[in-house]
Amino acid sequence: MTHISIVNYAQIEGARRIDAEYYHPYNQALMSRLQRCSDLRSIARSAILITDMGAFSLYRKEYFVETGIPFLRVENVKANYLDLSDTIFISNEYHARLVKSQVHPRDVLLTTKAIIGMSCVVPESIGECNMSQNLVRIRFREVFNPYFVSTFLSSRYGAFQSRRLATGNVQLYLNFQNIGEILIPKLGGNFQNEIEIVVKSAEKLFQNSKEFSRQAEQLLLSELCLQDWKPQHTLTYVRTYSQAARAWRMDAEHFQPKYQEMFERIPASVRFDRLGRLTTYTKGIEVGSPAYTDSGIPFWRVSNLTKHGLDDSNANFISDELYSALRSTYEPQQGEILLSKDATPGIAYYLEQPIKGIVSSGILRLSLIDSIPRHYLELVLNSLFVQLQIEQNMGGSVIKHWKPSEVRKTLIPRLPDERENEIAALVQQSHAARREAKALLEKAKRAVEIAIEEGEERAMEFIG
User: Fold this and answer.
1) The pTM of the whole model exceeds 0.90
2) CATH 2.102.10.10 applies to domain 9-201+440-463
3) pLDDT tens sequence across 410-428
């Protein structure tokens, strides 16, 4: 939707910014409300440290290792929490060289590229850690509780400032000077501490969720005798022409010995079903970037799908009119499993609750036609066992592609009913803890907004 606003020359702040988006009515309204706070302080005035990795020349992919020091990236920083489910690692030697980007407990992390303005606090349990060049760490003076700051930056009064102050035409970037201009209201110490309590409670629930998920995964792998198995990439091996002819494949990767080794390790007592016998599938649709709008109904792409749910931090939107035309055919339904087939194939999430939006063509909607526990199947699809099947059978040289015909052939291990139900229960507990954690973070964020709009007393009543 097009917005028209007229700004007096006197309002153009020293002519430093003359782009229309900066003076969008939404931004102007939020800034006007924020400026009613009695004590506003800029990050530049309130921080004792603002730093990033430093020289880009220090970025060396050859220093990445399988295990070592966690190396945080933009995708690890979510809306007021740190997600370590997809963490990569660097060597201790490289960590020692990257002094400026070594993060410490209670530092506030802020994303400066790709997804602008996502913020969280480094938890006290993390240990030694480092970060990429697309993150900035900020350490505040005692006047600001870092958990309050991160929650404020995640609220609409903080998020609009990050977006408003970012620069760039193709890819937005939030530089040090602009970060320093972000204004934060100095609210009471008791209120800031209450926000910390709520956010830390969410942190604990995220840890519980991760532990339930780990237990479920380990239980499945132990049943398959894959618990301690590490697949190894073999450099040389021999396969016959007849083997290649049967597989209709000539690429060497398809015949890696690790795939056969995985099946040889699985006990003979484990039986298998084909995914195509357990489910039917419906494809999504591709609407293309010209149909995207600034706001509206989410258009869910593969990049939004995680094994924990749909991440809306970088969602695209479509108009209500287009949504109305597509929803009867392409809106996911409660009880389906969303499964990615393109780009990053094999990410699965079971929809315990209905969601609003349309899914892209890179996502399949699986409907179950068998009595297999839904959460058990979700875990299996995300497991090493299925991921290696995908790795062996997918195609695509530039963008990875998992053909629906291959998806249907995927083998699903069937365990005794009590074991499948035990694994499914752990996955359910994991999802429930994660939902509760996100609800607490939303509560903390809304409390900060209420404190700005209605006062701290009303916000404390909301926290309860």
Assistant:
1) no
2) no
3) 999 999 999 999 999 999 9
